[in-house]
Specification:
alpha+beta, 30% strand, disordered N terminus
Length: 198
């Protein structure tokens, strides 16, 4: 049965509906939907679509521009008679929770704050990422200019199933201390993880 114009307009009424429309289109172009967000900006309706791909650093600006044009055309097919909207296509970054395996891998060494299902929180650097868990490297706070004592470094294996939200913490300078060095070293992490398990 053909859809009426009112049916097409209602098809963009919810974030889930937009996700259903754009997900297969993104898959055809080797990209993945992270989430859809509706908001208003200066009184205008905004549909924000966050996408990711398999590239090492995430979608390039060129890719974002290309996907914006493709998704705009696709959404227009379903939104001919509804209110105007502004489409914004973005990629995962600071301020957006880590929700995909590739995001964890891509941010290895970064400082992250994790909220867990038991109400506890944990801040540390992302280490080894496996299918079902992530290793977090923690270190005690030190004064500016002081180096972290390697003996006070700890590792925590955190199952993804116990994480409610995880956010990358902004750092004003490039990390260069021992906690970052350990987070990026598979052998050192494996040794510390083995000690943790004893």
């Amino acid at each position: 049965m053909p859809h009426s114009s009112s049916d097409e307009a209602r098809s963009l009424a919810t974030e889930d509906a937009v996700a259903d429309i754009v997900s297969p289109v993104l898959s055809e172009h080797h990209a993945e939907l992270i989430d859809v967000l509706f908001r208003r900006e200066d009184g205008q309706r905004v549909i924000e679509i966050c996408v990711d791909d398999d590239s090492e650093l995430g979608p390039s600006l060129e890719t974002i521009v290309e996907l914006s044009e493709i998704l705009s055309q696709e959404l227009d097919k379903h939104d001919k008679d509804s209110a105007p909207y502004l489409l914004q296509v973005t990629s995962p970054g600071l301020g957006r929770p880590l929700t995909r395996f590739r995001q964890w891998q891509r941010n290895r060494g970064s400082l992250v704050t994790i909220e867990k299902t038991d109400g506890a929180s944990l801040q540390g650097r992302i280490g080894t990422v496996s299918d079902d868990a992530v290793v977090i490297v923690t270190a005690p706070p030190v004064k500016k200019g002081q180096r972290i004592n390697p003996k006070r470094i700890a590792v925590h294996t955190v199952p993804f199933a116990t994480i409610t939200v995880a956010m990358i913490d902004f750092e004003f300078s490039e990390p260069s201390d021992v906690d970052w060095e350990i987070a990026m070293d598979d052998e050192k992490l494996a040794a510390l993880t083995h000690q943790e398990g004893k």
